[in-house]
Amino acid sequence: MGNKKELFTPQQNRIAALAKALGHPARIAILEYLVKVDACICGDIVEVLPLSQSTVSQHLKALKDVGVIKGEIEGVKTCYCIDKEAWSEIEDLFSQFFRKAAHCC
After folding, report:
1. What pLDDT does residue 28 have?
2. pTM for the whole thing?
């Protein structure tokens, strides 16, 4: 049997992947922080969250894997920032999704 994701549209799969990546409060806190500072951050994220470096790194990886944030290596550190194109895509996808849902009920 093939991959179950093939049964759904690319848009449905993308929304699901984004929702999964956004589905943890630590990831929301990371995104809120990156939006607030509106710059690439190298290492400061651990200082603003009540989590260990390794846990923050796991959350950053999940966000980076779906393209919500970008991470660029600068020396020995990785600097993270919001991917503004992806941010716009997320806004569009979820807006369309909720607009469609609003008309059904």
Report:
1. 95
2. 0.83
Residue 16 resides in a domain: yes
Gyration radius (Cα) of the chain, Å: 16
- Domain span at residue 35 reads 9-100
Residue 54 C-beta-side C-alpha neighbours within 13 Å = 0
Q: Which pair of tokens denotes residue 6?
A: 């093939």
Q: What separation in angstroms does the CA of 49 have from each of 55, 57, 61, 98?
A: 10, 12, 16, 30
Whether residue 92 is contained in a domain is answered as yes
- 77-82 and 69-74 as β-strands: parallel, antiparallel, unpaired? antiparallel
17-28 as b/e, with b when 16 or more CB fall inside 10 Å? ebeebbeeebbe
- Give the integer Cα–Cα distance in Å for 21 and 101: 21
